[in-house]
Design a protein that fits this description.
This is ABC transporter substrate-binding protein. The protein is of the alpha+beta class. Helix content is 30%, strand content 24%. The N and C termini lie far apart (46 Å).
């Protein structure tokens, strides 16, 4: 049998092309200490803490804290590592063995065993759950072998399969509590992770407390972890300086610079892709000419100057100097006249009516509001094209993203792992809510999954990326870099997923 996670070695090598972590060096603080509260602030809140609906976007962080994850993507080593599961191994990329940790229980006493994993995955398959994890669950079949073992089968060779157990299929809730609570489980979850859910004041904060029975003792070190919602970047930064929060999340580089100058610590997490928009492939935007027109109207530099002055812009899908960089995957030049011709042609084919599109963004952030306004002005430079801004709260935004009820939507790809390309853009991808379907992209991403040679996989990813740019599936104006800014007495902060940290690793130096 291959060593734990050994079958994903080829995939692991690819992660260096898409991710990086930079931390501020400081003197060692000695051994981790127990006790205290860490409060993290972000601009929106989780849409759900139910395993079948939280494994996308904003909900991933709180769910990891409550349920733990079967596997983790380590942003420092750029490897997939064990979590609630001890190992996930395969010799051929099709037949996999998932080994769980023995003796683990949910906080209600229910065994965290193979049957519990099977129950949760089966629940994700239920269409009535509207689970974003359903597509991932449909990619595999599984069989309980014994209390700590599942046999997992992929119909095709897929060396990227472990990624599915870090996000879409990562979170396992107590079957007993799910069956007893029904719909109420989404607001009073029961897991076996490092923290226990205590309260959630919507739009304000979620409070979690240390799970004394967590398998990885002495973690978690802190007694309490709080997710606080503060929409405006300046307000979060002021709250951090005032000691009202301990860690703030931000995607604007200027705050990282200000924080360093003020003696605060900064951990940064570079992700695949960037901050921009995803375009739906249904309705008016199913027309390739209209999509191309939008690509010609978007001015990255104008958006960056208006909302992110002095920060790095994006000229290519992958930045120069990274292994997946491809000079052919370059955003098109601004061309208002060319866009106008394409819009006129579309209107002529569709009765001459004005084209009205929606742009879904999150509410409450002045920076994102400014982005929306600039984007609206840019698209409306073409006569007959109108963009309506729909600013939604966290739950509403997540609902729109998962349901595909948008024309354009604020979007980043969600992490550093290149499998995110499959998740978002493959016809059968678990996160393909835009209904994008392109045989060239599908074949390339399938080749990347089946490749045992990293060079072959790299070439396949580049093919997919070039086609995504050519068909305007996604457009971003600045690289996605998440900054975690923390007070000097907080240690052990490691970024994970898109905007979060692993709270069980954090501790406070008194």
């Amino acid at each position: 049998m291959a060593s734990a996670l050994g079958a994903v070695a080829a995939a692991t090598l690819l992660l260096t092309s898409c991710a990086g972590v930079a931390t501020v060096e400081r003197a060692p603080a000695g051994e981790p200490r127990r006790g205290g509260t860490v409060t993290l602030a972000w601009n929106t809140e989780a849409q759900s803490v139910d395993p079948v609906t939280c494994a996308v976007g904003i909900g991933v962080g709180p769910c990891q804290a409550i349920f733990g994850a079967l596997l983790y993507y380590d942003a420092v080593t750029r490897k997939i590592v064990p979590g609630m599961a001890e190992s996930f191994t395969s010799k051929d990329g099709k037949a996999w063995t998932l080994k769980l940790r023995p003796g683990v229980t949910f906080t209600d006493g229910t065994p965290f065993d193979a049957a519990a994993v099977a129950f949760n995955w089966q629940r994700a398959l239920d269409p009535s759950q509207l689970s974003p994890s359903r597509a991932a669950a449909r990619m595999i079949s599984w069989q309980v072998v014994d209390t700590t073992t599942l046999r997992v089968t992929s119909p095709e060779v897929n060396y990227q399969l472990p990624y599915q157990l870090t996000e879409p299929l990562a979170f396992i809730g107590s079957p007993t509590a799910i069956q007893r609570k029904g719909a109420d489980f989404a607001t009073s979850p029961v897991g076996a992770g490092p923290f226990v859910f205590r309260s959630w004041a919507r739009g304000t904060e979620m409070v979690l407390e240390r799970n004394p029975g967590y398998w990885d003792s002495p973690r978690p070190y802190i007694d309490r972890f709080v997710y606080k919602t503060i929409p405006a970047d300046d307000q979060r930064y002021n709250a951090l300086q005032a000691g009202e929060v301990d860690v703030m999340v931000v995607v604007s580089d200027k705050y990282a610079g200000r924080a360093r100058a003020a003696g605060l610590e900064v951990v940064q997490y570079a992700q695949l892709g960037g901050n921009g928009v995803r375009l739906n492939s249904r309705g008016a935007l199913a027309d390739p000419d209209l999509r191309t027109a939008i690509a010609k109207l978007i001015d990255n530099e104008q958006i960056r100057a208006a909302a992110f002055p002095g920060e790095q812009g994006a000229e290519y899908f992958v930045a120069e100097g990274q292994p997946l960089f491809d000079a052919a995957a370059k955003w098109p030049e601004k061309d208002i006249a060319g866009a106008q011709r394409l819009v006129d042609g579309f209107r002529a084919r569709h009765g001459g009516e004005k084209v009205v599109l929606s742009y879904v963004t999150t509410a409450g952030s002045p920076v994102l509001t400014r982005v929306a306004e600039v984007l609206q002005a840019q698209l409306q430079q073409a006569d007959g094209l109108e963009l309506e801004i729909k600013a939604l709260d966290g739950a509403g935004f997540a609902s729109a993203l998962v349901s595909g009820k948008y024309d354009l939507i604020l979007n980043a790809l969600g992490g550093a792992h290149p499998e995110n390309l499959y998740r978002v853009f493959h016809t059968k991808g678990s996160g393909n809510t835009a209904h994008y379907s392109n045989p060239i992209v599908d074949r390339a991403l399938e080749q990347a999954q089946s490749a045992g040679d990293p060079a072959v996989a790299d070439a396949a990813y580049k093919t997919a990326i070039r086609e995504l740019v050519a068909t305007t599936a996604y457009r971003y104006w600045r690289p996605a870099v998440t900054s975690l800014i923390l007070r000097a007495d907080v240690y052990g902060v490691e970024p994970t997923y898109q905007y979060w940290m692993r709270p069980e690793l954090a501790w406070i130096q008194e």
